[in-house]
Design a protein that fits this description.
The chain is mainly β. It has one domain. The protein is built from no helices and eight strands.
């Protein structure tokens, strides 16, 4: 089960979770470890969500907004928003 926490919103791909605000449709996650005295790598997270509520406009999140990515209740990383794009009425692409 993958879970993304963005501010106070939760997105998950678990169909049994009824408390999440949105559904995680797809995503990619890249984390790299650098050797000592080596150039730092850039960790990236990209995902698409379906958010059926228009109460919060997800495109209004600003650059640098933090989010956390959890896999099976294990924290895999904390990322900062680069951009968000609406692709349909209820679907959004996020890039961290």
């Amino acid at each position: 089960m993958n879970t993304i926490l963005l501010n106070n919103l939760t997105f998950t791909d678990n169909p049994e979770n009824t408390t999440a605000e949105g559904k995680l449709l797809s995503g990619s996650f890249f984390v790299e470890n650098s050797l000592a005295h080596d150039e730092l790598s850039i960790d990236t997270l990209r995902f698409t969500v379906r958010y059926p509520s228009l109460a919060v406009d997800l495109t209004k999140f600003t650059y640098g907004t933090p989010c956390t990515y959890h896999q099976d209740d294990t924290l895999f990383g904390k990322f900062y928003l680069v951009k968000v794009k609406r692709t349909s009425r209820y679907e959004f692409n996020f890039e961290f």
